[in-house]
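Need a sequence for this fold. Nothing fancy.
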């Protein structure tokens, strides 16, 4: 108890000094003046000030001390009408008691609010960490799946008789590329966490798109998708992060492949296009799949929105934040007569937002 008391004092010495001085002044005034003058009600101010300590016990203790000082002062005061002195003393004690009670209530509510606030801060930190974990898992799962597929392919080429070293070498080359890409993604996330400024490379979107499509070549072929590209020859370079922009194209194309999983093989067509009007570049991924879900674009791009049984609902969210960080915007629309178009518009003279 003594230790707690000392701790209160050392935590906010000025507050307690002020409280002690004010109490002493009120006590003096109450003691030297007539019994008719109810100086003791001013202790109410002392109690209210003590709420600033943020300690219920401290407020309670101040209330008790104020009540005790009121009684002592009454006993020490020799002049004035004793009867009205008693009434005044009783009124003061009542005011002190009521104020102490209310002050403790206020402090309890404030403590609850403080607790809720820190809980909220903790929760949002947990959510950020969770979101980061989900996004790493999402971005890295694609290259890892590709590594496994190419590893299996390489094994098959090598165990065939005669072994096809040429094909096996190509599969191994793709494994190396995918592993590098996974490493780059993790590197970007790490620099994001460390608040390092993102790269400001000059990027040729045509090579970003063709590289992304090359990475998904196996999936496109395995799903019997007819792929077409319309990439304008005069695309101006954009400034930003090559890996991040490639991630967006990959996300859109993977979604398009998945959206076409349920339609007849001969109707599966994918058109990836890039056009420019000198001021901006528009990239679009057009599929003939099941079409966008019946939800607003805001909902579809929101975190954790998914209509897939094993989906995470992070791909579009991550894509949108990447494009917005590059000063652009994403869009989606139904494709005519079937499917969906997902795309983004980037200013050609871009500056990454910090
Ligand atoms: P996930 O792929 O894990 O579901 P995304 O954020 O990439 O997460 O996509 C969110 C949702 O948007 C998908 O579940 C799907 O309903 C819809 N969607 C995305 N791309 C397409 C598309 N090309 N065609 C139809 N729906 C799509």
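Here you go.
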């Amino acid at each position: 108890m003594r230790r707690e008391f000392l701790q209160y004092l050392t935590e906010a010495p000025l507050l307690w000094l002020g409280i002690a001085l004010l109490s002493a002044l009120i006590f003096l005034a109450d003691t030297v003046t007539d019994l008719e003058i109810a100086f003791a009600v001013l202790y109410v101010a002392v109690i209210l000030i003590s709420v600033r300590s943020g300690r219920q016990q401290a407020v309670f203790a101040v209330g008790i001390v104020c009540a005790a000082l009121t009684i002592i002062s009454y006993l020490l005061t020799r002049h004035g009408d004793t009867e009205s002195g008693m009434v005044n003393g009783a009124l003061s004690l009542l005011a002190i008691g009521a104020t102490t009670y209310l002050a403790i209530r206020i402090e309890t509510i404030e403590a609850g609010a403080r607790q809720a606030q820190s809980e909220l801060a903790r929760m949002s930190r947990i959510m950020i960490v969770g979101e980061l974990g989900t996004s790493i898992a999402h971005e890295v799962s694609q290259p890892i799946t590709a590594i496994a597929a190419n590893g299996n392919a390489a094994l098959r080429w090598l165990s065939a008789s005669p072994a096809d070293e040429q094909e096996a070498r190509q599969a191994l080359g793709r494994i190396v590329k995918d592993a590098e890409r996974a490493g780059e993604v993790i590197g970007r996330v790490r620099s994001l966490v460390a608040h390092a400024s993102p790269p400001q490379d000059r990027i040729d979107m045509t090579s970003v798109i063709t590289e992304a499509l090359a990475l998904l070549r196996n999936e496109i072929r395995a799903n019997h998708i007819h792929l077409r590209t319309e990439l304008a020859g005069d695309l101006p370079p954009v400034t930003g992060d090559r890996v991040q922009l490639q991630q967006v194209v990959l996300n859109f194309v993977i979604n398009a492949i998945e959206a076409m999983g349920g339609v007849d093989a001969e109707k599966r067509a994918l058109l990836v296009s890039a056009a420019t009007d000198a001021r901006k570049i528009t990239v679009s991924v057009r599929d003939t799949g099941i079409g966008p879900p019946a939800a607003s674009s805001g909902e579809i791009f929101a975190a954790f929105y998914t209509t897939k049984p094993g989906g995470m609902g992070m791909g579009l969210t991550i894509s949108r934040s990447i494009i917005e960080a590059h000063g652009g915007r994403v869009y989606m629309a139904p494709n005519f007569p079937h499917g969906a178009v997902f795309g983004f518009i980037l200013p050609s003279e871009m500056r990454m937002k910090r």
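For context: The beta strands are 201-203, 226-231, 238-240, 269-276, 280-287, 329-334, 340-347.
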